[in-house]
Design goal:
Structural class: alpha/beta
Number of domains: 1
Strand content: 5-15%
Distance between the termini: 22 Å
Radius of gyration: 15 Å
Number of helices: 6
Strand order of the largest sheet: 2-1-3-4
């Protein structure tokens, strides 16, 4: 069996809802319905790190983008982005199709489309410096596993 050489990047909490703020979970474990869509297309999944969890731990309080927007937090997001972009370059150089990135709508860190989150700003800037372009899609803030439908348009 050979790889079909397709990859999608997902925000950390798509696979691990344990990383979100206590009480803000929208699924048990991960977003299984969304993951099934990706896997049904035989696309490999790469989980991005969770800067918020890394920065403030599991028992953190809700914060806005403006509250997270500090030099220290931006530096963390940039440091977490570097190995990801290095891997993206390697995959592209070896003929892989990078299908896109799934973010989290309204996240101060991982929103990719609206008021872009800080991690996504840093990741996107580094990708741009390295001539890497991806499609972006956000899981809507009102998505709740087994209560709401959402189709990943970039597959």
């Amino acid at each position: 069996m050979t790889s079909n050489k397709k990859i999608i990047y997902v925000a950390h909490c798509v696979l691990n809802q344990n990383s979100v703020l206590n009480g803000w979970e929208r699924a048990k474990g991960g977003f299984n319905k969304i993951l099934k869509q990706i896997l049904a297309e035989d696309i490999a999944i790469i989980q991005l790190p969770c800067p918020e969890f890394t920065y403030l731990g599991e028992d953190r309080q809700p914060m806005t983008k403006e509250e997270y927007d500090t030099t220290q937090y931006r530096q963390l997001c940039l440091e977490l982005s570097r190995p990801i972009v290095t891997q993206m370059k390697i995959y592209q150089e070896n003929g892989y199709e990078l299908k896109g990135l799934v973010g989290i709508g309204d996240s101060p860190t991982c929103d990719t489309l609206g008021k872009k989150g800080i991690f996504m700003e840093e990741l996107y800037a580094l990708m741009s410096e390295n001539s890497i372009s991806l499609s972006w899609v956000d899981i809507p803030p009102d998505y709740v596993e087994n209560e709401t439908d959402f189709i990943i348009s970039i597959l």
